[in-house]
Write a structure and sequence with these properties.
Length: about 150
């Protein structure tokens, strides 16, 4: 079972956030994981997050990223995320349940993460920031982050 992520993690709360993070990743050549806010899989759902990511990737087609939807300890949200084809899902519930969910996720091509990775940047405080501001924040964090450049 996957325990954490190996890319710089940026928590996105909107399409503008995701586009800025992907643009910065493409411009700096640094890997990025676009992560939801904690428990977003419960209150916003995998459909919202999957749609957000699809729209961001359409806006920045050259970008490469990993995605991570946080479902907290909600088994139903995790199962919905697996059915929706979300790449990686955070589940913080009981270990025995996590093992069963991880097996289901593997069978459907998803990964289960049992420890929410530390974010390099959470854009929540900049929900209404200008696109240039968001891009500069993301680029600065990615340029200084430990993640390896993309091939």
């Amino acid at each position: 079972m996957v325990q954490s992520c190996d890319f710089a993690v940026i928590i996105v709360h909107s399409l503008a956030h995701a586009v800025a993070a992907l643009t910065a990743s493409a411009e700096t050549g640094r890997k990025v994981t676009l992560a939801s806010a904690p428990d977003a899989g419960i209150y916003a759902g995998p459909g919202w997050f999957g749609g957000l990511i699809a729209a961001a990737l359409e806006a920045v087609p050259a970008a490469q990223c990993k995605i991570l939807l946080d479902c907290g300890n909600d088994v139903g949200a995790v199962l919905a995320a697996i059915r929706a084809g979300i790449e990686a899902i955070v589940f913080t519930g009981r270990a025995d349940v996590a093992e069963r969910l991880a097996d289901i996720a593997r069978q459907r091509g998803s990964r289960l993460v049992t420890i929410r990775p530390e974010a390099a940047l959470d854009l929540g405080a900049e929900f209404v920031a200008l696109p240039e501001t968001l891009l500069a924040r993301c680029a600065g964090v990615l340029a200084s982050h430990w993640s390896a450049p993309m091939p």
